[in-house]
Specification:
With about 250 residues, the chain is an alpha+beta fold. It has helices spanning about 5-15, 30-45, 50-60, 70, 75-80, 95-115, 120-130, 130-145, 175-180, 190-205; strands at about 170, 215-220, 225-230, 235-240, 245. It is globular and about 45 Å long.
Length: about 250
């Protein structure tokens, strides 16, 4: 049974983020993945200690070592009552379902930041890019390991892009089409649109995808695609780092 991506990263990177004694006679192996994580953390203003706490809380949450009972107990009406519809992103959303996703994610972020003891605004920026940062970190470490002829045993579960034998779902894009064409998804609205497209697809197929599923959202006109992964979070589908032009043959 494959470990979830988040658990694999804990094994690979968590020790690199902390203070680990190194044998002076041994040359430490390069760990570009940990450097990427530290760079992103410093960009949003997290200290190393704050990074370690935030990383641990997010990892444990996405690994389902704990849940957020305060959030789970809220009904949709409770959540809607907390929304200021004149503010973003709610003012730009025409779907009540996506408004609920956005507000639940906002509450989720605040609860996790409090649990980590990290300023919520710094935590929010780190959390929003967390999954993509992890993916990039793991791909970099895989590349270095391959160059050293010591490919990690986790390699087979981390191959998302440029695979001819990709056997995951292919989803024709709708709301997320612009993000696919431009290959940018920094705006939270882009991520909500991706979630909306994937929720629509799951509902049409009557088959909710398991955590860890990787799917390709394809633009039928250009053939461009992005890959998204199902995660344990209110924002259940997140884009992975990168993208490619798959060609018309890969379109639905």
């Amino acid at each position: 049974m494959k470990l979830p991506l988040i658990s694999l990263l804990l094994i690979a990177l968590l020790s690199s983020l902390g203070t680990v004694p190194v044998n002076a006679k041994e040359r430490p192996r390069p760990d570009p993945g940990a450097e990427v994580m530290l760079l992103v953390a410093s960009t949003v203003g997290l200290s190393r200690d704050e990074l370690n706490r935030a990383f641990k809380v997010i990892s444990d949450f996405q690994s389902r070592k704990f849940t957020l009972s305060e959030l789970d107990s809220l009904s949709d009406d409770d959540v809607l009552a907390k929304i200021n519809f004149a503010t973003e992103p709610y003012a730009s959303l025409d779907s009540q379902q996506l408004m609920l996703v956005a507000k639940r994610y906002e509450i989720e972020t605040e609860l996790l930041a409090d649990r980590a003891g990290v300023d919520v605004e710094k935590f929010r920026q780190f959390y929003r890019t967390f999954d993509r940062t992890l993916t990039l970190a793991l791909r970099l470490n895989r590349y270095v390991s391959a160059k050293q002829n010591t490919i990690s045993s986790t390699d087979s579960s981390l191959s998302y892009f440029d695979e001819d034998d990709f056997d995951g779902p292919l989803i024709d894009c709708d709301r997320s089409c612009e993000a696919v064409q431009e290959k940018v998804w920094d705006d939270f609205i882009d991520q909500l649109n991706i979630v909306g497209d994937m929720q629509d697809w799951e509902n049409q197929q009557n088959d909710e995808q398991p955590i860890g599923t990787v799917a390709r959202i394809v633009d039928s006109e250009s053939g461009n695609f992005i890959e998204v992964r199902k995660q344990f979070s209110t924002v259940s589908w997140v884009p992975l780092t990168g993208g490619s032009d798959c060609g018309a043959a890969a379109c639905i």
